[in-house]
Amino acid sequence: MAERILIVQLNDLRDILHALPAVAALRRSRPDDHLVWAVDGNYVDLLRGQPWLDRVIGWHRRSPRGLFRFVRELRSERCGIAVDFQGELRSGLAARLSKARRRVGYLPSLEMAHVFYNERRPLESLNLHAVERNLALVEHLGVPPTPPLARPYLDGKPPSEDPASPIFPALRPQERDIAAVNAWCDQRRFDPRREQLVLLNPACNRPSHRWPAARFTQLAKRLLSLGGVRVALVAPAHAATLCEEVARPLGDAIGRADGRFNMLALSELLSRARVVVSADSGLLHLAVASGAVVVGLYGSSDAVRSGPYSASAAVITAKAACSPCYSKNCPLQADPPHCMDELGVDRVFAAVLSRLGQQAGAARRSA
Questions:
Q1: Counting Cβ atoms within 10 Å, is residue 170 exposed (0-12), middle (13-18) or buried (19+)?
Q2: Cα three-residue angle 184-190-194, rounded to 5 degrees
Q3: Buried b / exposed e along 4-30 (16+ C-beta atoms within 10 A)
Q4: Looking at residue 155, what DSSP letter applies?
Q5: CA distance to 36, 170, 179, 322, per residue, from 50 (Å)
């Protein structure tokens, strides 16, 4: 008999994206079930209208009656099962308030969220990628096990030439999203038949993850010296000052897509890039979910747990003794953090170059 299943992953773009493969596996295994996702209101537009999901319920926390409306909508769905991927107090409470008869989550959990579950799956190790932890959680509902994705960068091997990440369900932009990206490309006179687009994201919510702005400028300058390569910045609107710092020395040579698009339109733009360069951030993982080839910059975070979940990704890691530390801010109060400062432009440029299919001679000429 078909079930109504509530998916609880309220916030953090990276965590929402890392839940997508588990939701896709749930849909494949239980095609007749009704899948509802409870999410923070800021992310409703990313999930609404996706063919692998039946409904999205947003918690608009800044609204005076936001919690009341959220709970009312949760209960109106009459879900029999709630799966809490987030494992925090708010998400566990949301599962409980839904009145689902089966409430599934990991034990142990953050902030004692597991007190709201009546079916607890032991969390055997944190030394797994978040995607794999989420996939293991839905096995509790009878979803067949999904083999871990081979990530060559963990073993120091070259990336796969296939950029596809079939484990992620396709993010379907609306017509208006595609039109917005087309207009941006037309304005920049970008011709994908003759040029390769490289997108750079200098922004991260965690200061300890940020690569220095000057390094992004140097990288962009070297890429722009290559024939047939266009470079643009992508980042959230709040990173406008940082993007301006990167772009100022380059003038009109570098495109600006930062703060221009909603998430689905940004996904569409990312899917058109030949390479996306970013530190560990929600935008990096949005690029992976969109099917883009990424070059990830990792210092304070651990690529085993939160690296790009893609066989085609390249990851540049630090060798600093203090890395990884998982801290939001550098514990040594270094600015920039030693682990990110150690990532030289040469290494990143070489990784991007290899994904562009450029010859070594082109790299020497642009140095």
A1: middle
A2: 155
A3: bbbbbbbbebbbbbbbbbbbbbbbeeb
A4: G
A5: 11, 8, 18, 41
Q: What pTM, to 2 d.p., does this model score?
A: 0.94
Quote the tokens at residue 57: 């319920």
Give the whole-angstrom CA distance, residue 70 versus residue 235: 30
Burial level of 190, CB count in 10 A (0-12/13-18/19+)? Answer: middle
Show Cβ contacts of residue 124 under 8 Å, excluding neighbours closer than 6 positions. Answer: none
Tell me which residue of 332, 334, 300, 305 sits closest to 317, measured CA to CA.
300
Tokens describing residue 58: 């947003």
Where are the extended beta strands (E) located within 134-270? 196-201, 229-233, 255-256
Distance separating alpha carbons of residues 80 and 24, to the nearest angstrom: 19
From the first residue on, what is the mean pLDDT of each consecutive set of 10 residues in the chain (367 residues)? 95 97 97 98 96 97 93 98 97 98 96 96 91 97 95 92 77 96 96 93 93 97 95 97 98 97 97 96 97 94 94 92 87 89 96 77 36
